[in-house]
Structures are given as C-alpha cells and as structure tokens.
Amino acid sequence: MSELKTNRLFPYALISPAIVVTVVIIFIPIIQTSVMSLFNYVIWKPKDNKFVGFSNYMKAFRDPVFWISIKNTLIWIIGTVFLQLILGFITALLLNQQFWWRGIARSLILIPWVTPSVITALMWRWMYDGNSGVINDLLVRMGILKEYFPWLANTSTALPAIMVALMWQGFPFFAIMILAGLQAIPRTLYEAAEVDGATSLQKFTRITLPMLVPILFTSILLRIIWVANSVDVIYVMTGGGPGYATHTLPVYSFIRAYKALDFGYASTLAILLTILLVIFVAFYVVKVLHSREEF
Amino acid sequence: MKRRLFTLHIPVLLIVLFAIAPYIWMFISSITPEKDLDKEVRYFPRHPTTENYVEIFSKINFASNIRDSLIVAASTMLIGLGISVSASYSFSRFRFRGRNYLLIQFLIINMFPIVLLLIPLFVIMRVLHLLDTYFALIIAYSTFTIPFSTWMMTSFFNAIPRELDESALVDGCTMFGAMVRVTIPIAMPGIAATGIYIFITAWNEFLYAAILTGRTVKTIPVALQNLIGEYEIAWGLLTAGGVVSAIPVIVLFFFVQKQLVSGMTSGAVKA
Amino acid sequence: MRKILLVLFLLIPVLMFATGQKETEMATVHFWYHFDNPESAVNPLVAKFQKENPNIQIIPERIAWNVYNQKLLTAIAAGNPPDVSQVKLWWQPQLVEMGALYPLDDYIKNWPGRDDIYDRIWKLTKYTDGKQYLMPLQMVILYMYYRADWFNELGLKPAKTRDEFLQVAKKLTRDTNGDGTIDVYGFGIRGARGGHDFWGTFVLSSGARFFDEKGNPGLTTPKAIAANQWFIDLYRVHKVSPPTTPNDGFKEIIANMKSGKTAMTIHHIGSSKGMVEALGDKISAAPVPKGTERYWTSFGDEENGVFAASKYKDAAFKWVSFLATAENNAIWQKASGQVSINKSNAMTPEAQSNRFLKATTDSADFAAVLPALPATAEFVESLWPTLMQRAFNGEISSKEMMEKIQELFTKK
Fold first, then answer.
1. What is the distance between the alpha carbons of residues A54 and A70, in angstroms, rounded to a whole number?
2. How many domains does chain B have?
3. Is there a domain that residue B54 lies in?
C-alpha cells in the first residue's frame, strides 16, 4: 500500500484517542491492582499491609480451590463459547435469508442480550427452581423427568445449567456479528458457483465458511475473553456454589476481594487468570494459524 | 416454498421461541398478582393485573431510569464507535511501528477481570469530580468496550478489499476522505453490529453503575436491583421492569437492523 | 468524533467547577441506606427532620442490598465514605479496624432518648473495645414459622427441644397426594448464604461455641462435631428438608412455606405479612426449640454508623438519634416491617396481640449474635455457605467443616 504511506502520522492520529483512554482508565488501574498482588493487602487490616513478594502466588498454587476454579473456568469457557457459537451461527445463516418476518425475527432474538444480567440470572434461577420452577414443570409434563430436580443445588448439574443460561444470553452476539460478516461476502462468488453447478453445501463449505473465518476468529477470541471474565450471572445464580461447583477463577477472585476483602490474594488470582487466558488464547491463535495459512 | 417451511420458517420460529421464552415467562410473572406467584406454576394467571406496570412508573420513577440508561448507552455508543472505528481503520489499513504490539496489548488488557478495577476507578472519578454523573459511566463504558470494538472493527475492515481505498486516493481523495467516504460506508454492517454491542453493554452494566453512580444518575439495572432486598424480592415489579427495559432496545434495533444488510451492496455500487 | 471529544473535554472542567462551587453554609449529611420495600419511609422522615433542623440538609441515597457492603467498602477504601450509613452489626469489627467509624459515646451520654432503647440492644451493639460506635435502628429476632393447620391435623405441638423437633419434622414430611413421592417437607433449611442462622439454632445451642468463657475455641470438640452432624443429618439422613436445600436462599424458603412445600422454617417478622396474605390463619409462629444445652436464635439488626471522615458529625448524630426516637422509629418500622428498638413502641395494643410479635419478644432473652470479630463477615458471606453446601452434598465431613470454620476464627 505504498500510496497510503504518504502521511506517516495519520495512522497514529487515528489510534491515539483509543490509546489515551485505555491507558488512563484501564491500564493504570491494572498496574495498581497488579502491585497489590505482591502485598498482604487485606482492606480491614491496614496495619498488616506489607510487601510479601510472590508468596500470594505460592499460596495460590497450594490452594485446592484455585485448581478447582481453573478446571471450572476451562469447562466454562469451552462449553459456553461452543454452545453460543453453534446456536449463533445457525441463527445468522437463517436470518440472512429473505423472508417477510425477518426484521421482527432479528429484533426478537436480541431479547436475551438486552435483558440486564441481573434479571437474566434471577429469571433463570427461578425457572430452574427445584420446587416450583417452570423448567421442572415442563419436563415433568412432557414425561422427561419423573419428579422435580434441583438443577442448581446439585454439584454436577449446577455448572451446565448456568452454561445453558449463558448460551441463551450470549448467542445473539454471535448471530449479529456473523450476520454482519455475511454481508461482506460478494454475491458474485455465489453467482459464479451457481454457474459451475455447486450444491448449497459446497457453497457453504467453499465460500461462506472460508470468507467468514476472520470474523469468526475475532468474535470467538473476544467471546472467550468475555465469557471467561463474566461473574454476574454465576454469582447471582449460585454464588459460586453449591460448594465450589461453580467457582470459576473470576468468581473466586471476586469473592476473595469483596466478601473476604483480601485484595492482595484477589489480585493474585486476577493476574493468574490473565496469564491463563493469554496461554489459552495463544493456543487458540496458534491452532487457527496452523490450519489457515492466510491468517 | 414448502421446503422453506422446514428449512427456514420452523427453525427460525424455534430459535425465536427459545430466545423469547424466558421473556414471556417474565411477562407472565409480571401480570400475576404477587400472592399467587409462589403457589404453583401457572401459564395463564387466574387474576391478571397491570398493577406492577403502573407501580414501576408511579412508585419508583422508572421513566427517569430509562432516560438515564438511554443517555448513557447512546453517548457511550457514539464515543466508543468514534474512537474504535478510527483506531481499527488504522490497524487494518496501515502497517506502522508498534502496530502488532498495540493490537495484542488491547487484547491482553481485556483479559483482566474488570471487577477488580473498581477501587482505582472510583478514585479516578472522585479526583475528576465525576462521581454520580453521566460522564463517569460514559467514560468507563466506552473505555471498557474500546478494545473489543477495535478488534471487531479491524476484522470487518480487513474483509473489505484495500483496492477500494487505493483507487479513491488515486482519484484525488485525501486519506481522511478515503476513510470517511469509501471504507466506512461499506463497513456499515460491521459498524452497526459493533454499535449494537457497545450500546447493549452499556445498557446492561450493573456493578460500575451501582458503585460510581446511584443517586442523581440511576440506570435501569441499578433501579431494578433496588427491588431485590435483603429479605424480600419485589418479584412483580422486578419482572415488570425487566419486560419494560428490553422494549426500547428492541424498538431501536428494529430500525437499525436494516443497516446490517445495506452496507456492502450500496457501498459496492459507489466504488 | 473530534467534535464529541472536544465537547467532552470542555464539559469536564465545567462540571468540576459546578460541583466544586457548592456553597456550604448548611451542614450536609450524606445518608446511605437500603430498604426492602420499593417505597421507603425515608423521604417523609427527611422532610420532618429538616423542618425541625433547618440548618441541616440530609442527602439520602438508597443503595441496593446486593452491592451495599461492596459500595461502602469501595467508598471507604477510596477515602470518600458518606457521613452516615446504615450498617450491620457483623460489619462493625471490620469497619472499626479500618478506622472508619466514629465512636458515639460522648453524644449518647447526653442524649435523652437513650433509656427508651432496650438495654439488651445496647449490650449487643457495643464493640469489644468498650465503645459504642453504632446507633440502633431496628431489630428482628428469628423464630420458627409453622403450619398450624397441619400441626392440628397431626396432633402436634411446636417443639420445645431438639429431639422433639426432629420427631415433629419427620411426621410432617409426607406424601399427601399418594403418588409415591414426598411432596411436603417438615423443615425448610436455608442452605445458601444467610443460612448460618438455622445452623446456629441447632449447632451453637448443642455444644458448639465459637469461643468458651476462657476464650478457647470450641467448634471442634466431639460434642460440637456431633451437633453439626445432627444438623447435616436433617438433610442427608432424615431428609426432612427439600432436595433443593443446598441452594435455597430466603426467597426459596419463604416461597416453599407459602406454596405448602414445607411445614416449618426459620425466619423473622419481616416475612409475616406475605405469609398471612398467602396462608391466612394457617400460619403461626413460636420460638425456636432448645438445643441440648441452651437456646440460640439470631438477633438480626440494623444500625446507623457515623463515619470518622465526616465533616459534620454533630449534624450526623442529630440525624441518627432522630431516627432512633420512638415516634420516628415507628414511622420507619411501619415501612420496613421490622421491630422498633424503642421500649415505648412495644406497649401499643396492636403490638401486644400480634402472634408474630409475640414470638419475637418471647425469644428476646436468648437472642444472640455471632462473635464480634473481623472474620465473622467472611464466615457469613462465603465460608459458611460453601462448607455447608459441601457437607450437605456429602463432599466433606462434619469434622472437616468445623475445623475449617475454627481455622478461620483462630488464624492470626
């Protein structure tokens, strides 16, 4: 793009507002919080606040709850993003077609996303209720269940149950992003394929999917980070319980910070989460790069 | 036409049903009188009432909460889009020193759980005298969404052939002109999608809104949270509020969604 | 976009100027509170107060309960607390340790309303350093709600002892419609956050104590572990509590009572109005049963604290004492549905004939609080619910649970 290099300051001028605000509003606070992880900083014990080096990190590695949280975080990320992606993709493909009520359908599928998380969490918690929840009622009426089941009180179903709620909340994101991505595919490609007599499936695997890769790549990447960090729905639905069954790393960090006021340890957990995510994302990026040369 | 029934209309209907079922259930709860709510599952309330809807507007002044949320979400969207569209155009179209480093840095700062940044941010807002103002939330939200939106927009821009900008420059456009007149119109679906993302994030956010504002500025999630007490949940009001709070965004989106398709076709003609 | 930014940068200083210029002839008191009812009693009380004290301006801010503690701590940590805030007794140790609260002893000494507040409340709210940081606002005492109609049907009486209680709970747990599955459970236990009150009634009354008279920890003695096991067995062995127990919060336990899913539960007078609306005469109340050694029930409370950082402590005290006088406190309680802290408010005839109020006052002598230690907040907020849920689900033993709790309270 030799022509575009004429004004060398132009690219910097375009990014500088983004850099300035992120540095002031996010970057500096992150540094401050990171420094806390090297201190024994418990808010209500101002006298005991002292530098402890990496002992908070050592403590984390010996903390069984930390490892449980890591396991849950991985299950949570992979499961939730996968569910959201599949449903969102199907939705986008369907809503990309022409039909008379498309505008209404597109607006309605947005409902899960625009409902405040607090309400989403309470609503789902109430629907899952083991004594008078509508999900139990429907499953019993349909004969799938014999009696009401305590979805959120059972150690093995609590996390999957929340994942379904988050699938509901998050699939519109993928649907909208993929829908927008589909618009960038030139019609001429399909027309040419039709001339060559390609089937719908061939058009999908040879044109749609490859052309969508960049936007899929980015939205999955961003969604992984977003899902990994989401605390509110889990916290309202189960508070991290029963026991540690729905403790993910950010939930654990949140509980340490605001329920035990142990900001030193909570910051340590936050940093470890960030490192874990960097590794996870790097793994994901390498995988994608490996399978797709041009990216 | 028959085939479209099974491959299109029914699947879409099922997905729409899945999306709105909890919402419908919320609506049913909101028109059920409080004392019938706990008794048993009822799909058609025996004594439907609009009392809760009257009450959220008369008792807790919900109209002003909707106004606050609209102001915050719309301003956040405008500022967030302005900043991230220009940044991502730069990331997509130019190769400059520090580009990759900056892109990755944008991604990494997103990985840190923002719940832990509350105290430092509270201090910043206090120093700037912005506590309990719209600006506190607009600044916080647009910043939190910038890294995400920049990444999203960068890949939308990447999908648009560079030859378009180049030919505009050859035709005598300035660099700014090429961006504003050629690339951005084509990227409208992506910009609309990203704008929706920013708007909704700001519309829904609760924790920062509760801590940084709450008295003069009170967004919908904060107002609704006030209905959840220590010992009691005003369930009827809460569900009514939940139903009402989704409506402005849905209506807004109904008009915006056309942007999701128009960009490429109209832009391509111009180019 | 540039225009927007420009406007933004111009507006920030204007805004700073505007907020910085507030003339402060008047003493302004920022008051934070939370309220369960959508309509609170605060605005009329503020109006009344300002009429009596024209040179003091009260700026009330209502904060959602879910973030109340978090917002307060964030504000304190960032150096910007309100002047007065509603607080819980079990936050007191942390707030005092942080140096956030201002002792009120000198004010209270000369305050005429002092003697109209129950002596027991003064005793319970005094901090371990001998100072009085908190001004009482309201109280609740937990008691047992029970289904009077089912008790009559089965010829039962409210249990007086722990063993009687188990028998009663077992009899009430039944399959009423004959379909082979249990549809009524004897006792709805709150297994999620806040359920430590249930636990205390059966465990702290039967041999377990956080600390004995000599100050030695007493949660891991054989008696204490057995008492905890007895409580776990209610759910795991006798199954007198619904299968959802580990995740049940107050919403669930109350809903289960109202819908007839459970026959007994522990809560306070705040939920009596809703219970009567749903069940009428079928619902009644009695004090909790006695454990093997003593009675224990939770004293629930609400106080106002004045913050050390406040510029207008005199005005702040005027406001908190205003709320603690009988006439104004009655207005507050009318909206909150809780119990007044003033002796004179308990003498009214309507208060005397209320069965829920009676269960409350009958329990007043043994109502107790958790130890006034900084660790208590963590115990209530996260440790107890996590351990209890794990014990209910069979992941840890009674002994492990008690050891973990003792560890929290004894670690230096």
1. 19
2. 2
3. no
